[in-house]
Amino acid sequence: MNITRRHLIGLGGGAAALLTMPAIIRAAEPFDIVMQGGKNGGHVWFDPIGLHIQPGDSVRWINMDKGNSHTATAYHPSLFDHPRRMPRNTKPWDSDYLLPGESFVFTFSKPGIYDYYCIPHEAAGMVGRIVVGSARNADWLRSGTGDKGVPEAALNMFPGIDAILGMGRVSIDGTETQQGGAAHAHS
Amino acid sequence: MTSFKILSGLALFCAMTGTAFAHGPADSVAMSPPDAPFQAVSALVPLPDFLPGMGQLFVDPATLPAGPFMAYDHDGALVSTIYMLPLSQLTPDQGFDDLTTSGALVDHVDVVYNAGHPGVEEPHIHVILWHVSPADEERVAQ
Ligand SMILES: [Cu+2]
Fold first, then answer.
1. Do A68 and B122 make contact, defined as CB atoms within 8 angstroms?
2. B23-47 mean pLDDT
3. pLDDT given at position B81
4. Beta-bridge mates of residue B84
5. What's the gap in Å between A65 CA and the centre of ligand 1?
6. The model scores a pTM over 0.90
7. Which residues of B are less than 8 Å from A44 in CB distance?
């Protein structure tokens, strides 16, 4: 990245050149996923709950909930004894607790389907799914081994792969009318 | 005679300080920070020190998850006593017995669902004994 930037500046482009290079912008700017909660703490959610990115892209989780702390934690046996819901032989991530206004960035290099949860809110269905590149490396999804011990409320919330690939990002209605039911997508 | 002196002394104290409580909270919890064994929730778990809608919370860790949690406004005055009751523990064979109180007069009560937060990391019910009027809940709104 540093080499690319120096190279561009060497060409006399500077910031202006960066702005006209979509590939560079993509690498530099993470995709944002907001952690949010309703006014009285009854509802909590990730927005978008489903996201499609490419290998090399980064995701930034930001806690915008003034009254709560949240985590973005990969489903992986090395983290809090959870099942693996991400590609084999790939490094998992855990943001640890983010206080209001705090954020965490993780870069995805390997294609596949990655599910994650918020530690204090998994039982309330606060989970998300990221598809990196194509929908390869989903052995855990086909075999169903990733479901063991995952709360029903969480299993009900993961958006479908087709919806994520079709729309790029899937949001849920996390407001007062949504009562832990199936996620419904809107663009 | 002695008890009369104490009572009249208390009445004089209340008149001097303008205390309006029919039953005041125990001295140990009347103002923030309350005495030990209460500790700031924000010191025990990763949460903001002041929670919008609730205030600055303190709890005796030995009483988790139920509490009581003592909640204070920005001036350090007790506004509510809160109990946090996990849905998973409200069963035919479980429940919560003999929860202590702050001793403060209860103006009204809220019972609300909470999805969870550090400290009580599962869906639970907040039972909030407000020691101020509904209008005065504004003191901890932000
Ligand atoms: Cu959360």
1. no
2. 91
3. 98
4. B126
5. 9
6. no
7. 115-116
